[in-house]
Amino acid sequence: MSIHSVRRECANLAWDNSIPPALRVKSGDEITFDCMDASNGQVTAESTVATLATINMAALNPVNGPVFVDGAQPGDTLQVDVLHIENPEWGWTGLFPGFGLLADEFPEPALKIWKLEQEGFAWFDEKKGIKVPLKPFAGEMGVAQKKNGALSTIPPYHTGGNIDTKHITVGSTLFLPVEVEGALFSIGDGHAAQGDGEVCGSAIETPMKVTVRLSVRKDKPYTKTPHFSTATADAKPEGGYYCTTGIDSDMREATRSAVRNMIAFLVADYGLDRVEAYILCSVAGDLRMHEVVDMPNYVLDWPIVLPQIGMMMPRSVLGSSDKV
Prior knowledge:
The chain is mostly beta strands and about 325 residues long. It has 3 helices and 22 strands. Strand 14 (about 155) and strand 15 form a beta hairpin. It is globular and about 55 Å long. The termini are far apart.
């Protein structure tokens, strides 16, 4: 086994099988990637909401790589073991007009700069006792497609990409279908914390150094989309959940309703404004699908992990709500 590194400058704004490899490794080698944040350095710790109006949207979501893995052939599976993640001391969450699950209800830009504490959390509102546990992961992980031409790094694909899955953190393993020789793996979009859904369009975005081990698997031909194994998905938070539901015959509208109802709860019981509540949902709340068979309506909910909004302590400590 060898240990390698990919510099921050080795970044691309597309998935494209014609991009020359930044590095060639053997199966089982470890690689440390020094990744820029999703804004590609356009947002800094000193930024204000005015910064968002100056951002070049075409430069968002760079991915580091690609890495050519010897022995990887079409039909194989690339195993990606996440070994180590290093975050800086800050991150950001932004609302961009026209982007996000409730974009029509939040037309104005907003920006929150976070201080990432060494103790493993970030204060959302210290006076209210609301803090978000840090669970860093890379939102972008993928391999090149057999299809020729440049594909945007913004959406996810069957070969990975912007999958934004918070459970693929240290100790987890991602499996990706290989479509081209060498797999051509890339990674980026560091998140210090994110709720399942990332509903406002961003998490706690941050630059990140992440170390992975890349291994070729010949025994998983059924891997046609990203698969992953993790111990975090079943972890039950101390304090449990408070859930709001959305019910509608349209899956997207049921989802929007669940989030909208959680925003109303946070405004009423914790004194947040709607923008603050929307941001908190994006970085700390998890969407769940409860049933899809009782036609014509579907039931989804939006559980907030109580510790993630400051309820890791007894509820009496918060003092700002006696209604839950």
